């Protein structure tokens, strides 16, 4: 062992990071590192807090974009409520279910039953398969009966559940005399649209409050990152790096997870290039990589036509002199690109629908413009991000990597022949 530590092949000391784990994606920060969400913590506590006094809690739905602290704050408040309840001699359980994995009622109830069993001395065997939802509910009520005065159930990514029966069962359990325990449900979704469908899916028994978590602003992101500065060795972060990282992330999305990832990526970049410090330029480069990853994620479920449409719009912006383009203009370029990758183009109307979908994903913005009396109105589309990132993200699709890279497009654009010069495109 001792010899290994001295092997020059492996540096014994990381020159950049001291506690890198603070920047890992799955890392859950300690209580004292949670910042900028005091109001939200208060609001969630106000809904479920009655449990700590032996009173019935409210159910609550939390909505907000990705990386706004919904999962973190929910778990944080639930755990604190549990501790506070215990100090009042109330047995309160906290159950966390990720509905993106447990996405059916059977899976969700099974996980609920198993986690409840884990937290108690429940003796009965809970089968992993071969039984239905009803049997899992029986176990749940049985465990509640014997071990708990109250539970808080967090249903994260609740929009992934194929039906909302579990919400009804949990909220009606007392009324239906399945259990005497109080049950507080915290539902979480980053799809605000889910809200509309939820009302149709559930009845009044799931009476619930709604909370909205907003994207972080630059000063909150700064605070979140400052609180993890000790991930780095002393003096490694140059002045202004955290401020720059926060400003860029706030401008793009206000997502804390992404901001932290950029900081980590900047550190890795510094280390790879043998730099002793992390500079603003490392942050800039890391932000580019992160932005391309983000677009790749956003478009990962999109069709190849949507990707080609995005590529068409980006390439027009790069080779032309305008930021906004009509559907028709994008379509013409798109058809040319389809020829290059030997794909049959879809209709203009089909493409228009794809563009609307991208607008929904937040990759492009579309605006209706009056085209004068004879022309009628038409849509103008723009990218919300640097076209360079779109080109890179689209080319990461294996079937599209032969498309011209950004540099090739930029050279063509500089040749001043602009659109006409792209004979290979349209
Ligand atoms: N207020 C905060 N203070 C410190 N760190 C935070 C804060 N908010 C978020 N983070 C960091 O960002 C990560 C992402 O937050 P969280 O998982 O709560 O986001 P989310 O809103 O649930 O996103 P998604 O919709 O993608 O699930 C957390 O694990 C944590 O590291
Ligand atoms: Mg979450």
From TrEMBL:
<feature type="binding site">
    <location>
        <position position="216"/>
    </location>
    <ligand>
        <name>ATP</name>
    </ligand>
</feature>
<dbReference type="InterPro" id="IPR014277">
    <property type="entry name" value="Orc1/Cdc6_arc"/>
</dbReference>
<feature type="compositionally biased region" description="Basic and acidic residues">
    <location>
        <begin position="416"/>
        <end position="426"/>
    </location>
</feature>
<protein>
    <recommendedName>
        <fullName>ORC1-type DNA replication protein</fullName>
    </recommendedName>
</protein>
<keyword id="KW-0547">Nucleotide-binding</keyword>
<dbReference type="Pfam" id="PF09079">
    <property type="entry name" value="WHD_Cdc6"/>
</dbReference>
<dbReference type="InterPro" id="IPR050311">
    <property type="entry name" value="ORC1/CDC6"/>
</dbReference>
<feature type="binding site">
    <location>
        <begin position="68"/>
        <end position="72"/>
    </location>
    <ligand>
        <name>ATP</name>
    </ligand>
</feature>
<dbReference type="GO" id="GO:0005524">
    <property type="term" value="F:ATP binding"/>
</dbReference>
<keyword id="KW-0067">ATP-binding</keyword>
<dbReference type="InterPro" id="IPR036388">
    <property type="entry name" value="WH-like_DNA-bd_sf"/>
</dbReference>
<dbReference type="InterPro" id="IPR015163">
    <property type="entry name" value="Cdc6_C"/>
</dbReference>
<feature type="domain" description="AAA+ ATPase">
    <location>
        <begin position="56"/>
        <end position="217"/>
    </location>
</feature>
<comment type="similarity">
    <text>Belongs to the CDC6/cdc18 family.</text>
</comment>
<dbReference type="InterPro" id="IPR003593">
    <property type="entry name" value="AAA+_ATPase"/>
</dbReference>
<comment type="function">
    <text>Involved in regulation of DNA replication.</text>
</comment>
<keyword id="KW-0235">DNA replication</keyword>
<feature type="domain" description="Cdc6 C-terminal">
    <location>
        <begin position="310"/>
        <end position="394"/>
    </location>
</feature>
<feature type="region of interest" description="Disordered">
    <location>
        <begin position="407"/>
        <end position="426"/>
    </location>
</feature>
<dbReference type="Pfam" id="PF13191">
    <property type="entry name" value="AAA_16"/>
</dbReference>
<dbReference type="InterPro" id="IPR055237">
    <property type="entry name" value="Cdc6_lid"/>
</dbReference>
<dbReference type="InterPro" id="IPR041664">
    <property type="entry name" value="AAA_16"/>
</dbReference>
<dbReference type="Pfam" id="PF22703">
    <property type="entry name" value="Cdc6_lid"/>
</dbReference>
<dbReference type="InterPro" id="IPR027417">
    <property type="entry name" value="P-loop_NTPase"/>
</dbReference>
<dbReference type="InterPro" id="IPR036390">
    <property type="entry name" value="WH_DNA-bd_sf"/>
</dbReference>
<dbReference type="GO" id="GO:0006260">
    <property type="term" value="P:DNA replication"/>
</dbReference>
<feature type="binding site">
    <location>
        <position position="228"/>
    </location>
    <ligand>
        <name>ATP</name>
    </ligand>
</feature>
């Amino acid at each position: 062992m001792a010899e290994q530590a001295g092997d020059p092949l492996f540096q014994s000391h990381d020159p950049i990071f001291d506690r890198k784990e603070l920047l890992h994606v799955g890392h859950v920060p300690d209580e004292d590192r949670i910042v900028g969400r005091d109001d939200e913590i208060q609001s969630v506590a106000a809904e479920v807090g009655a449990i700590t006094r032996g009173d019935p809690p409210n159910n609550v739905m939390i909505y907000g974009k990705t990386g706004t602290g919904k999962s973190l704050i929910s778990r944080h408040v639930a755990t604190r409520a549990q501790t506070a309840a215990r100090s009042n001699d109330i047995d309160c359980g906290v159950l966390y279910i990720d509905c993106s994995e447990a996405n059916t009622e059977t899976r969700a109830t099974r996980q609920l039953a198993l986690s409840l069993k884990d937290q108690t001395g429940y003796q009965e065997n809970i089968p992993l398969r071969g039984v239905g939802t009803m049997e899992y509910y029986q176990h749940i009520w049985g465990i509640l009966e014997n071990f708990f005065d109250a539970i808080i159930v967090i249903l994260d990514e609740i929009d992934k559940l194929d039906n909302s029966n579990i919400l009804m069962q949990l909220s009606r359990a007392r009324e239906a005399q399945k259990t005497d325990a109080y049950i507080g449900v915290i539902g979480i979704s980053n799809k605000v649209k889910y809200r509309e469908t939820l009302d149709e899916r559930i009845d009044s028994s799931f009476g619930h409050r709604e909370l909205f978590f907003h994207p972080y602003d630059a000063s909150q992101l700064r605070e979140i990152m400052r609180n993890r500065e000790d991930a780095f060795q002393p003096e490694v972060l140059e002045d202004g790096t955290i401020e720059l990282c926060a400003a860029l992330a706030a401008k793009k999305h206000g997502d804390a997870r992404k901001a932290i990832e950029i900081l980590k990526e900047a550190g890795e970049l510094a280390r790879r290039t043998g730099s002793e410090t992390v500079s603003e330029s490392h942050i800039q480069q890391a932000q580019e990589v992160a932005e391309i990853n983000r677009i790749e994620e956003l478009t990962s479920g999109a069709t190849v036509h949507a990707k080609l449409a995005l590529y068409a719009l980006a390439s027009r912006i790069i080779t032309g002199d305008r930021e906004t383009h009509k559907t028709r203009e994008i379509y013409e370029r798109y058809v040319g690109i389809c020829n290059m990758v030997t794909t049959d183009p879809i209709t203009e109307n089909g493409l228009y629908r794809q563009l609307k979908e991208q607008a929904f994903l937040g990759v492009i913005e579309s605006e209706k413009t009056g085209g004068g009396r004879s022309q009628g109105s038409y849509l103008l589309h723009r990218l919300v991000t640097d076209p360079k990132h779109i080109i890179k993200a689209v080319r990461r699709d294996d079937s599209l990597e032969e498309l011209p890279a950004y540099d090739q497009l930029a050279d063509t654009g500089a040749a001043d022949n602009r659109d006409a010069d792209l004979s290979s495109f349209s």
